[in-house]
Amino acid sequence: MQSTGIHSLELIFLLLMIFVAALAALAKRWQTPYPIVLVIGGLLLSLFPHAPRIELNPDVVFLVVLPPLLFSSAYLTSWRDFRYNLVSIAMLAFGLVGFTVAGVAAASHWLLSSFDWRVGLVLGAVVSTTDAIAATSIAQRLNLPRRITDILEGESLVNDASGLLALEFATSLLVSGQTPGIAAGAARLLYLVFGSIAIGLLVGRLVYLFEKKIEDAAIEITISLVAPYFAYLSAEAAHSSGVLATVVCGLYLGHKSSFYLSSDARLTGAAVWNTLTFVLNGFVFILIGFQLPYVLSDLHAIHLGRLVVEGLLLSAVLILLRLIWMYPGAWVANTIRRRLLHQPVTLPNGRAIFIVGWTGMRGVVSLAAAISLPVALQNQTPFPQRGLIIFLTFCVIFVTLVLQGLTLPPLIRHLGLAGNPGTEEEEKQARRAMAEAAVSYLEHSREAEGDRFTPIYDELIRYQRRRLNILEGDFSEDASYRFDDYKRFREVTSQIRSLQRATILHMRNQEQISNEVMRRLEYEIDLLEARFSASDHE
Asked: Where are the domains of the chain?
């Protein structure tokens, strides 16, 4: 990051964080996704005469910001749902990316007279990836059907890798002037995919084995912060995809988190990661707004009005290409899932397909990819239309974030897709299984120990049955209970927590509940464990 006008980098960073906090607070007050408010706020702030000039460095994005954001999203993703929707996700993350690159290359010849098909391919690759942060935040707030949210989250995890791969091919074609062969391209794709998966799994396994030997929450959290960078840099060093390796590592460690993290690490780590991802997301979105002076600096020869029109036309083309792909793509994905994979899925209705199509918002990865384009070709001539590509990418990000982001909530409500969370029944099923397992254990232990602790077991059984009654809608039983032997009570409740933790892990492993439901219930168990652990030290 470079700055002019203010010599203290620390002061600039402090001001940016203040702006991020203030604008995010306004976004919450206005009930608007914070990425939209941050981008608009950054753009307005950049127009002030004495505003700091902060240039977005693509290396900062790819090497510092992107790995933890990808890792965090993958860590929280349900492997069960990701695997179940893999065909639909691949249809967007690979099929739609390729369709977008080809579509923009074809359209740019008509929309942008100075672009040939090779420059159009580069532009298409730059703007082919979506940023689902704003879309998924809206989806979660309005309780979109879980299937839609899972597909959007999965697409955003994988399409960065496919989009950057497309950019690698398009850029090499333009820089070297040589067209890569089909065999070479296929070999490169296979190496990127399977090599990245292998590296991500290897790093995840090493972190898992190392974390299992540690019981200090601070050290466990520190290792979790290092893991995404380790996976990313290892893959990049092997000339593979750091993005895909980081995603695979996050998916693996997220699926295994209950086996290697202590309850303190899970509780504290969740707060640390939530804060880190918020700060990084806020930082990059406000920096997107600050880039306008830089994207205009090399375009003095072109009238601003013409530039804006071309940016709006390209944005419209991208939105249209995504919507065109969605309907046949959904049909093909559904056919493959039903006939080849024998999944009991139905074709989503037209309203759901449209909403997925309307969530094609672009973000910081596209802008960083545009800025990272080489300045010159192999023959030392300037990279054609580099400044215009950066400006058009900025326009696409701004238009899609603001237009689609602001219109998405009313569209979701108008189409009747709001208010369908989809995980309530799974959570109720898991809570019932936890309570039933506790009752079964308590009844067996009461019979085994005789009359000595009968009152304790009776009260604990009544408490668990009360929880079952509440799940069934019966609130008539008195929930109060007492105990005579506190030490035995603590021992038994500790065993119950271990049993209930094992119950929900088993249900997750049997794919009866999602990772999201398991983590929600595990969080409650961890809180109880932390509460009793704290009282032990009083």
From this structure: 2-414, 424-536
Type and span of the H or E element at 7: none
Contact 420, 149 (CB under 8 A): no
Q: What is the pLDDT of residues 231-252, one digit of tens each?
A: 999 999 998 888 899 999 999 9
Burial class (CB in 10 A: 0-12, 13-18, 19+), 301: exposed
How many alpha carbons fall within 13 Å on the CB side of residue 324? 10
**DSSP 8-state class, residue 32:** -
72-95: string of b/e by CB count within 10 Å (b at 16+)? bbbbbbbbbbbebbbbbbbbbbbb
The answer to whether residues 316 and 69 touch, using CB atoms and an 8 Å cutoff, is: no
- Say how far apart CA 309 and CA 86 lie, in whole Å: 37
Three-state SS across 273-338?
HHHHHHHHHHHHHHHHHHCHHHHHCCCCCCCHHHHHHHHHHHHHHHHHHHHHHHHHHHHHHHHHHH
Q: How many angstroms separate the CA atoms of 124 and 163, rounded?
A: 9
Backbone φ/ψ region at 57: left (φ over 0), alpha (ψ -120 to 50), beta: beta
CA atoms within 13 A on the CB side of 509: 10
Min mean pLDDT across 52-61, 389-398, 418-427 is at 418-427
Whole-number Å distance between alpha carbons of 236 and 245? 9
User: In terms of Cα–Cα distance, which of 94, 249, 82 is closest to 150?
Assistant: 82
Instruction: Give 339-397 as a DSSP string.
Output: IIS-----PPPHHHHHHHHTT----HHHHHHHHTS-SB-TTSPBPTTHHHHHHHHHHHH
CATH architecture designation of domain 2-414: Up-down Bundle (1.20)
Of 290, 289, 514, give the one whose Cα is nearest residue 424.
Answer: 514
